[in-house]
Amino acid sequence: MESKTSKAKLDAALGISPDKSIDDFLDSLSMENGSAKNAVDKIDSSVKSEVENIDASIKALSVPSVDSDEVEEYDRKLMSLVAIDSSLKNIDELINISKDVIKHIYENISCTELIDSELIQAAASFIESCHLNIKEYIDLYKDRLKFYDKVRIEMLQQKHRIEVLREKYRLEKEKKEAEAVDVTPTGTMIFDHDKIINDLKNQNI
Predict the structure, then answer these.
(1) Average pLDDT of adjacent 10-residue blocks, the chain of 205 residues
(2) Among the residues of 15-69, which ranges form H helices?
(3) Spans of all domains in the chain
(4) How far is C-alpha 179 from the chain's CA centre?
(5) Is the CB of residue 77 less than 8 Å from the CB of residue 61?
């Protein structure tokens, strides 16, 4: 379900209608009508939007909730981590789409029989610009990924801590319950030694 939602989100950001695929999107790109530049602009905007989402989640993680216990705090951080993971996957997909755009434009230019020096120059400049964009996206991705991995490790440690506390609580509860159990065997009587001695004295024994 999550992958379908991410795909729908990416398609909407790139202007791909439900009845179209990413291949249709690439096939429609052309240097001559400016559609390739529009596509790159959409990709750039989508990447920046995902980075903003990640930074918002990072900010939420950095602000502790003073009113919540450790379990609630863990659950809150987990939701933020899931959101970061989703945005990272979207950025990764957008990087791949950017690479496909470069490949598509290159193949279109290299396969045409019409040698237009201006078109070739424009395509070369466009591809170089896309290449620089991809480098920027990868740097942004790696930077946020480092933080994601760091928080993920911290949360694994926190989860282990919570499990240890829960096990400790369970053992303490079992110990208290064991101490409260009546250990007198069934069918036996409890004798009061002082009462027995007094009864024997009263009977002159």
Answers:
(1) 65 84 87 87 93 89 69 81 91 93 87 76 90 95 91 84 84 80 56 65 62
(2) 22-27, 35-62
(3) 2-202
(4) 45
(5) yes
